[in-house]
Amino acid sequence: MSKNFYITTPIYYPSGKPHMGHAYSSIIADIFARFKRIEGYNVLFLTGTDEHGQKIQKEAEKNKKDPQIFCDELSSTFKSLTKTLNLSNDDFIRTTESRHFKSVNEIWNRLVKSGDIYLDKYSGWYSVSDEAFYDDDEIEDKDGKKISRLSGSSVEWVEENSYFFKLSAWQDKLLEYYKKNKDFILPLSRRNEVVSFVEKGLKDLSISRTSFSWGIPVPTNNDHVIYVWLDALTNYISALNFPDTNDRKFRNFWPADVHIIGKDILRFHAIYWPAFLFAAELPLPKRIFGHGWILSDEKKMSKSLGNILDPIQIITKYGVDQLRYYLVKEVSLGNDGSISMENLKNCINNDLANNYGNLCQRVFSFVKKNCNNKIPKANNLKEVDLKLIGNIKSSVPSLINLINKQDLNSYLKMIVSFSFEANKYFNDSEPWTYKMRDPERMNTILYTIIEQIKNISILLNPIIPNSTQTVLETLNISQDKFSIENVLKDNIFNHNQELKNLDILFKKIENDN
Ligand code: MSP
User: Fold this and answer.
1) How do 221-226 and 208-209 pair as beta strands?
2) What is the pLDDT of residues 114-142, one digit of tens each?
3) Total-model pTM
4) Which residue of 20, 61, 145, 253 lies most exposed, with the fewest beta carbons within 10 A?
5) Is 308 in the pocket of ligand 1 (CB under 6 A)?
């Protein structure tokens, strides 16, 4: 049975500073990658930068830089963001790398071979900011300017020679595929959007440009550069050493298990990409998951109000786990969600400091004081103890199922409730009252609660990797033991070893902070 799992983020335009939207796509994908690793899968997690096209060329010109130098500089900002966000990506692809050129060339050649490419003239609307072609009925007037009704970005009229991809020829096959593979596009609302768009009829797609040069040249006609989306989407297989389809990476990881993307780039991933792959005779990814937007309503987030949420600033001030946790908690994955500083602080205080943080801190300091700082052994677990630990273990299949459906919010909710339960168990069991009269009972309670802290920490590890690692290492559990298998196993502790020291896990945020 194959235990491989391939997950990707969108590759980001290095046209400006990374913002919360980029951080969000990446954090979400990282959480799934981490979970699959602790579930025992051999995971490949890919992210990177999308460096060609008119938008980047214009941005480079504006900055009076050679586009390659411009990309080198900004791509490294995105690369360092992977560290700041504590991403566990296995690779970082840049579309200016030679491995990617090779792969895009092969895709182009395959599309030529399948008879899907022809030369014509494109005349229509183009948005440089979205790098997208729009139909007349997708355009509206705003303040005397033409904009895309879908994205709100301004469009310009383009007339140039262009190679076209016979997208229309794939319409029926796409519809049939969506029908047969009900969870190819998730959430369902996005799937319906795509299906009704395709049902309305697909037009052939312009896949080369001649009015600028920053891109991968069309192999047989260097006056054209390949449309940046055909170029960019191919990154997902370039990283697997395509065109070498016999390569171990390609064989193990293609088709991808899930492409995590934002809903704004759904059309490219759920229509164009599958059609290109059909034509290239390659298998389709198993799932496209389109998350919603983090809202930054001008009124809610403005410089004058001082509440713009910059991921790097938040991380510097409060910590990376705090941001990761907050984004998962606050924004229902798949829907749009508003975030605010006020809610971030409340979340850090209530969920992290008061709940999980407090649980660990109070239990560990009790053990330090009363048990020579060693994890006590259990004697005669009572029903209440067995129930506490049993609940979480028997929930493991449902938890895995939630992750497989990308239902991250329900997953987190369940773990948070286990943490509440554990705090309640500690209060209700009153281990301090047994110290003199029944030390064995006290030990059993402590063992039980530590067992539960271990389980909660492993399950929270994909979301808040740093703090859970600290907690587990306090219990002398090394990283190679962070696994779902060890949630199911009892007593993986060394009872002779002292606990490490645990500093404050999550600092409470005061109101003026
Ligand atoms: N380069 C393309 C993707 C090519 S993938 C083959 C691109 N890049 S992007 O930098 O503009 O955006 C990347 C991701 O950030 C998208 O998934 C987009 O949805 C996400 N976000 C950008 N702003 C966002 C929010 N405000 N909220 C959530 N995510 C949004 O598109």
Assistant:
1) antiparallel
2) 999 999 999 999 999 999 999 999 999 99
3) 0.96
4) 145
5) no
